[in-house]
Amino acid sequence: MTSPGSGLDMVENPSSLITKRKIQEMVAQIDPSERLEPEVEDILLELADEFIESVTQFACRLATHRKSSTLEVKDVQLHLERNWNIRIPGFASEEIRSVRKSTVPSSHTQKITAVNNAKASLANSK
């Protein structure tokens, strides 16, 4: 067991991007009386590392698609917003987000109305 602030968390897994202490702090913010078992902390560390790796790889592919050799916030932001529904506070996403209003043809609307009316009349006749 490591003592908080000892720096030994990073010695245990130097490639980890988040520490056990940080996970403990986040849990304490939610419920100060809650304590995680070491195995649970290890799994959460692994999940966090995999998530960060996945997001970074996808953002790098977006940057490459833009024909850029530099990873920018908008690359990470686009992936997080579109695929994970995670917003990055402090960064405007209006330039990234394309607003598409779906236009439903009136013929489709009429068909849906007819189906709903048929369902209602069947329900009323029972």
Task: State the helical fraction.
Answer: 55-70%
Mean pLDDT: 82
Shape: flat
| Helix-strand sequence | HHHHH
Instruction: Look at the helices and sheets and give the structural class.
Output: mainly alpha
Radius of gyration: 24 Å
SS field, number of helical segments: 5
Identify low-pLDDT runs.
Answer: 1-11
Strand content: under 5%
Distance between the termini: 68 Å
Question: How many strands, which pairing sense, and closed or not: the largest β-sheet?
Answer: none
Number of strands: 0
Give an overview of the whole structure.
The model is unreliable at 1-11 (pLDDT under 50). With 126 residues, the protein is mostly helical. It has helices at residues 8-12, 20-30, 38-65, 73-84, 106-125. Helix 3 crosses helix 4.
Descriptive labels:
single chain; 126 residues; mainly alpha; 60% helix; flat; TBP-class protein binding; transcription; transcription regulation; nucleus
Lay out the secondary structure.
Blueprint: H1 8-12, H2 20-30, H3 38-65, H4 73-84, H5 106-125
Helix pairs in contact: 3-4
A few lines on this structure:
The chain is 60% helix and 0% strand.
